[in-house]
Design brief:
By secondary structure, the chain is an alpha+beta fold. It has a single domain, classed as Transposase IS200-like (Alpha-Beta Plaits, 2-Layer Sandwich). The chain contains four helices and five strands. The chain has a five-stranded antiparallel β-sheet, with helices on both faces.
Length: 153
């Protein structure tokens, strides 16, 4: 019996999905369980790259949160941008810059009508609490929102 093979996910929203729709995206490092992201220097690069892509209009990210071995973000993409290409370019830049080893793919879930952006953001913000890393979401330092830092110059 052959071992199971990993299936590549398409990450291409159907044509009926409006441009700018929000997606809940999870990107994992490899190996899992090893802290590669929750370091101040790596976090600074993650923030800067996320903000740069945000300001450049490659994506709209209302929330990014890094855990030690994965990160979550809410992101919307313009019709002129491809989600897989934007995420891949961002991951490539960060792997070169910070030596982060990413898993090959990522998970995405489009927020559908009736799914609350605020509810998903609360779920993301509570991830470090559920993992036992901090007592409150506000105590976790590895969170970025567009309002949390000054614009790039």
């Amino acid at each position: 019996m052959e071992p199971p093979r990993r299936v590549s996910l398409p990450h291409v929203p159907p044509a009926f999905v409006p441009s700018g729709s929000l997606f809940f995206i999870t990107v994992c490092t490899t190996p899992r369980g090893e802290n590669q992201l929750a370091y101040p220097a790596v976090w600074a690069e993650l923030r800067t790259a996320t903000e740069h892509y945000h300001i450049a209009g490659r994506w709209h990210v209302p929330l990014l949160l890094a855990m030690p071995d994965h990160l979550h973000l809410l992101a919307g993409f313009a019709a002129t941008e491809s989600m897989p290409r934007v995420v891949a370019a961002w991951k490539h830049f960060l792997s070169q810059r910070c030596r982060v080893t990413w898993q090959r793919d990522f998970f995405d879930h489009r927020l559908r009508i009736g799914e609350s952006h605020e509810e998903k953001a609360r779920y993301i913000r509570n991830n470090p609490v559920r993992a036992g890393l901090v007592a409150t979401p506000e105590a976790w330092p590895y969170v970025w929102t567009p309002e949390s830092v000054a614009p790039l110059r």
